[in-house]
Amino acid sequence: MINIQTHGHIDRELCGIPLSVGEGSSQVQLETTPRMVTDESGLVHGGFIFGLADYSAMIAVNHPHVVLGSAEVKFLKPVNVHDVVVAGATVTRTEGRKHVVSVTVERGDVKVFEGEFICFVLDKPVLS
User: Fold this and answer.
1) Does a structural domain hold residue 50?
2) Over the stretch 27-82, which tens digit does the pLDDT of each residue have?
3) Residue 43, SS3?
4) With helix as H, strand as E and coil as C, how does 47-100 read?
5) Which pLDDT does position 1 carry in this prediction?
6) Domain presence at residue 3
7) Quick one: CA dihedral 21, 55, 126, 1, positive or negative?
8) Distance between CA 35 and CA 117 in Å, rounded?
9) Using CB atoms within 10 A as the burial measure, which of 8, 90, 99, 122 is most buried?
10) Residues 6+ away with beta carbon under 8 Å from 7
11) Which domain holds residue 79?
12) What share of the chain is helix, strand, coil (3-state, %, to 5)?
């Protein structure tokens, strides 16, 4: 049983299905769908890949009040409709409330995205 403490209402069809959650790490899988396509060639909008990576970073931190502060990312290869991609996230550094998370997204053995996410753990929900 995967014990995820954050983002309980996220749409997993759009942001991915968690495969594993460990201490400071996660893996999340997304099967891209026609709803994510930008054009007639079947190109998936990068926002969905970013959302997958962000979700993976959030559950690697795995705190009920984790939020994204910033991200530095690179889109390396295009993703097509019906591709299955997996995001792997690892917390690389923690400084108080700040968590630095490295994320890669792969389609099979091809890296399509990489980034560093700066996440913050708050005392209460950001909108409260």
Assistant:
1) yes
2) 999 999 999 999 999 999 999 999 999 999 999 999 999 999 999 999 999 999 99
3) strand
4) HHHHHHHHHHHHHHHCCCCEEEEEEEEEECCCCECCCEEEEEEEEEEEECCEEE
5) 58
6) no
7) negative
8) 26
9) 99
10) 55, 58, 59
11) 12-121
12) 20, 50, 35
Q: Which amino acid is at 95?
A: E
Per-residue tokens: 25:
């790490």
Tell me if 1 sits within 8 A of 57, measured CB to CB.
Answer: no
Helix or strand (DSSP H, E) at 12 = helix 12-15
How many independent structural domains does the chain possess?
Answer: 1
* Whole-angstrom distance, CA of residue 61 vs CA of residue 45: 26
Residue closest to 6 by CA, chosen among 18, 103, 102? 18
Q: Residues 21, 24, 27, 28: is their CA dihedral positive or negative?
A: positive
β-pair partners for 107:
110
Contact between residue 44 and residue 36 where contact means Cβ atoms under 8 Å apart: yes
Q: Which two tokens stand for residue 79?
A: 């993703």
- The answer to the question of residue 96 being in a domain is yes
Whichever domain contains 116, its CATH number is: 3.10.129.10
